[in-house]
């Protein structure tokens, strides 16, 4: 089964909001036979640049994906833009952008 990760803007959103926004996409991708890898990470509780830590973790996941699906608004989110460029530069297939 091919693995897909969802990239979506998350700044200022709770985990519940993020999961709610992606629920329809997860259902559609699952119905099409993809394995949707959960990349909504629990909050980091340590010091440092938290958004950068989330980005680093997502890049680690991208390395194991067959596809990345970019949700609406990704072009305005700095982390999503970096994830998109990584997919382009490293040959990870993009399902929607």
Structural class: alpha/beta
Low-confidence stretches: none
Q: What is the helix content?
A: 40-55%
The coarse overall form would be globular
For the residues shown, what is the average pLDDT? 92
The fraction of residues assigned to DSSP E strands is 15-25%
Q: What's the main sheet like?
A: 4 strands, parallel
Contiguous helical run count: 3
Q: What is the CA–CA distance across the termini?
A: 22 Å
Work out the radius of gyration: 13 Å
Strand runs, count: 4
Oligomer: single chain
Query: Which sequence of strands runs across the widest sheet?
Result: 2-1-3-4
Order of helical and strand elements:
EHEHEHE
What's the topology here?
Blueprint: E1 3-7, H1 15-31, E2 35-36, H2 50-62, E3 67-70, H3 78-90, E4 93-96
Parallel strand pairs: 1-2, 1-3, 3-4
Helix pairs in contact: 2-3
Can you describe this structure in just a few lines?
With 97 residues, the protein is an alpha/beta fold. 44% of the residues lie in helices and 15% in strands. The protein has a domain at 35-67.
What are its keywords?
single chain; 97 residues; alpha/beta; globular
């Amino acid at each position: 089964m091919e693995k897909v990760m969802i990239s979506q803007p998350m700044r200022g959103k709770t985990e519940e909001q993020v999961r709610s926004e992606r629920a329809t996409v997860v259902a559609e991708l699952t119905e099409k036979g993809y394995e949707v890898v959960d990349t909504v990470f629990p909050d980091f509780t340590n010091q440092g640049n938290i958004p950068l830590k989330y980005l680093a973790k997502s890049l680690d996941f991208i390395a194991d994906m067959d596809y990345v699906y970019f949700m609406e608004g990704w072009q305005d989110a700095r982390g999503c833009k970096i994830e998109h460029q990584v997919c382009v530069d490293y040959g990870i297939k993009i399902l929607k952008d």
